[in-house]
Amino acid sequence: MGHRIIQQNRGRGGPTYRAPSHKYKAELKHACGCTENVNGRILDIEHDPARHAPIALVELAEGKKMYMLVTEGMGIGDEVAWGAEAKIQNGNTLSLRDIPIGAFVCNIEARPSDGGKFVRASGVQAMLAAKSGGRVAVQMPSGKQKWFNELCMATIGIVAGGGRSEKPFVKAGNKYHKMKSQAQKWPRSSGLKMNVIDHPFGGGGHQHCGRPKTVARGTSPGRKVGSIAARRTGRTKK
Fold first, then answer.
1. What are the residue ranges spanned by the domains of the chain?
2. Cis peptide before 20 (omega within 30 of 0)
3. β-pairing verdict for 55-60 and 65-69
4. Which architecture, in CATH terms, is 187-238?
5. Tens of pLDDT along 8-20?
6. Cα–Cα distance measured from residue 92 to residue 162, given in angstroms and rounded to the nearest whole number
7. DSSP element (H, E) containing 128
8. CATH of the domain spanning 21-160
9. Which residue has the higher pLDDT, 218 or 183?
10. Per-residue pLDDT tens for 60-109?
11. For strand 227-228 and strand 214-215, is the pairing parallel, antiparallel, or unpaired?
């Protein structure tokens, strides 16, 4: 009987594959919906273990404090606003119908009032491309267009922390702490480097998988590695 492979262990769950959410500071939801109006002031810009982009501690007009995603150019003491009466400026959050076409936005709601789901990674932005029939087309960071309800809220600007991936880790400890905060197993060895008891691709006189890398969808969990239910493999001929 072989050992459980990584895919099986991840599916079973456990502390190795569970994000330390008790260390996270906030979910970074919008302060209100599209029918309300809220103003606030940035008190501090902090680091959140849950993400690579910085976050801002904001004091709302009624005295309540909350965290929000920081966009490039924002600083301590800046005024921010949510709602239809907010100005079209960096850091403010409005419904997509109130934002002009061509503006860069981030932290977009998937559905009205869900708090923001898309375009939240450091240094990314989306762009409003078109409006039609109560829906708004947004060009996502991937380059594809996605249609949203016009009542979905979005923050104007580009998420701060761009260029993060250009900085090398330098030390293995830095990489360790990064992976630990994201619930990823690190370091990881490829299946070819393992013993035959540990992985279907392991063992042999030299590093090779020794079997077809494409497996069926219904393959048993201990063998479900490689290209799973692939329609085709190999290089595409032009």
1. 21-160, 187-238
2. no
3. antiparallel
4. Irregular (4.10)
5. 888 888 888 888 8
6. 19
7. strand 126-132
8. 2.30.30.30
9. 218
10. 988 899 999 999 999 999 999 999 888 999 999 999 999 999 999 999 99
11. parallel
